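dude i think i finally got it to work??
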Amino acid sequence: MSLWLPEKTTNAGKMDSKEKIFEERTYWGDKEYFCEYIDDNDFSKISPITQVQALCLLPTGKFVIYKDKGGKYGLPGGTVEKGEALKQTLFRELKEEASVRPVEYGPLLYLRVTNLSEKPIRITYQARYWALIESLADEISDPDGKAVERLFVSENEMLKYLDWGRKLNIYLSQLKKIKKLQPYLNKTL
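look at this
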């Protein structure tokens, strides 16, 4: 069942016409959000995009995740800084949180995020990417101090570490549709 949202919102972007894959109501801190996962990789028509995140794959078939100072695991990504292009945010966040560099990358899907705790209700977007990466020798240099360790894991290990349920399966399903990545996928389950 879909959550009803009022038509009047403060949204710079337009309503999405692409297929909604999944939706959920979630909490972050003391704020409530409604997230819609949209099967569309054209980020040019959505605004404002406030966050990027990537499903990062090594040529060996391993994925990269990071561990935060609280002991939780996640995919590298973060907030788009003022004046920063999405590519700059993506490259910066992958280096800071996982000490990796994209060799090739592309859009995967996006989230339409409604902050239900604000009045008027505010809608923002989050871009999700795939990235074929190379590991850097550098230590993790997260200026926020959030990321403390990176791990290279199989798909099955990533599913266990992240324990995101359907959300991560959606990302993986979208990733497996990308033909150029087929040689790298399923090397290590």
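Residues 19-181 form a domain with the Nucleoside Triphosphate Pyrophosphohydrolase fold (CATH 3.90.79.10).
im so relieved honestly
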